[in-house]
Amino acid sequence: MFELTKNNQPLFPANKMETAGQLLERIEQAEKEKEDPFFYFDDRDVLHYYLYRSINLNKEAERSDRTIKEYERELSQLIENMLQFPEEIGLDIEQIEEGSLFKSLSPRHLRRYQTWLAEESPRVQTKGPYSAATLARKTTILKSFFRFLHENRYLNQPIHQGLRPATVRKDDRPNRDLGPKEVIQLLDYYRDRNRIMFTLIHVLVGTGMRNDELCQLKVSDVRFDPILGGFYLHVIGKGNKQRDIPLREKVMDSIVLYRKTRLLPADFPSDSDEPLFPNSRWKAFRPSYFATMLGDEIEKVPILSIQARKKRITPHEFRHSFAIISYMNNSDVYAIMRALGHEKIETTMIYLQKIMEREQHVVHQWKDDALGKYI
Fold first, then answer.
1. Where in the chain are the domains?
2. CA within 13 Å, CB half, 48
3. Which of 116, 165, 215, 283 would you label with 331, given CA atoms 20 to 30 Å apart?
């Protein structure tokens, strides 16, 4: 039907920055000739430019590698699925326009792809349905890409409007409330059994960091605060946004413990690019492996409240714990938002929604004699 390759080159060649620059030269040439921006582009070119183009003059404000990889993975999956399962998806395309898959799509094709992906794809048949949040994320990426193609006149039709909303309701979100009692149980269990796990959990819950933020930390990211005293972590989060996270003394002690357990120096020179939390091979953890390793280890813990959970515990649960413990210690929600590196207060409220609902429940307003001796 169609093959998104060019001169037998891979979909995403290695030298991405150079290629994006070369594609920009073609855009400027089209502009000079009063043509549409992507006049000299094919599908492979426009996809590549969308992923790797520069979007901000300030390099620190560019999209993170994590974001780019997520979009690359999702759009690659779209193309591979449409090429491999056209009949199953319902791609009733009689003729490919100008050799372009994207130009041959209509709103109905995107709707059908959404339905197939959610209900009939091989992933769903083998591993079960996607979560509502995952479907919402996939829809956001697809809509962003096809809107970009229409706005830059590569597509005549606004086919992104054919995508149905993938709403995430409050009840669709997994319960990630890991409160202080369960955290203490885990820390008590690991303290004398496994110093590595003890430190990783202690640091995650004591800082509220994301999984990939912890994995990419370098030794030089531990810094001393000459004004307030003590140490803090210099963290680069989503969208390359930077923030500083103060380290409580015992959390800092755990970082030192981790380094010594790995037989590494526990000083923190400002010019060291070594990973702060290396794995057993003294290399930085890959975020996906780190999450799997942490979940596997916690599943072995013989604590009833942990074992009773239907979902595996991931590093993200401890980020929720940080928010919950902060709220329980009377921290302002906006302060929690800034500490977590969130851009919107609504995201932070998702972390705190269940505990706030329980705390503000009307039953707490009952007087002691509301039901006599039974209350």
1. 16-172, 180-359
2. 25
3. 215
Residue range 289-332, pLDDT digits in tens: 999 999 999 999 888 677 777 678 899 999 999 999 999 999 99
Alpha-carbon distance of 363 to 358, in angstroms, equals 9
What mean pLDDT is predicted for residues 222-248?
92
Segment 20-28 shows an average pLDDT of 91
Domain 180-359 is in which class?
mainly alpha
Single-letter code of the amino acid located at 321: S
Between CA 146 and CA 167 the distance in angstroms is 19
Alpha-carbon gap, residue 254 to 198, rounded angstroms = 8
> One-letter amino acid identity for 87?
E
**Alpha-carbon span 323 to 317, nearest angstrom:** 10
CB of 179 closer than 8 Å to CB of 314:
no
First-residue to last-residue Cα distance in the chain: 71
